[in-house]
């Protein structure tokens, strides 16, 4: 299913943010916000939006870097583009990004095809933002793929009441063993599900990436879809 760019009015009238969106033809579909890595709404994120639309979700990926540089689409396999993504992440204001994710959630809730329930699912930076969205938005469910720095936000975990699934790569240099242990120990409430994938590295679910692991990606994606379908 092919998507297209739409425009979303952001909080407080701060401007219009682009988002890549695809929707099933049926009505009464759940909504899903896909949150980008540091590489923007690139081919992988657009393909992910289209894949979830094919599975029956009204799906959109907001261009969360739009205040810095609208329309970022980077190839992480090109060193200069990878470095540009890291640079943008350093400039990105995450609390404002959460407001933009909320604006996307609201837009999907109000979409005529949507049943009013909306989840969030993010990768890397987006995995961190998905955890933050579980805290700071009205999302109904959150899924985080190899979110970075979540171990620094565990003191707020008791404020998260929605089902939250975390996929962690055992060999992730950005989420070292001590961080993984802290996350496992800190997220033990019934609404959390922490899954660690042995022998794989950061980015294992990005099928365009050098660390892609098909078996781990398929397992993580099945778990994500199962949770999203059960909640939404």
Automatic annotation (TrEMBL):
- Pfam family of the protein (one): DLH
**Which stretches are annotated as coiled coil?**
none
Give the Dienelactone hydrolase domain ranges: 17-231
One Gene Ontology MF term = hydrolase activity
- InterPro entries on file: AB_hydrolase_fold (IPR029058), Dienelactn_hydro (IPR002925), Dienelactone_hydrolase-like (IPR051049)
Judging by the UniProt lineage, the source's domain of life is Bacteria
Name under which the protein is recorded: Putative carboxymethylenebutenolidase
In its UniProt entry, the species of origin is given as alpha proteobacterium IMCC14465
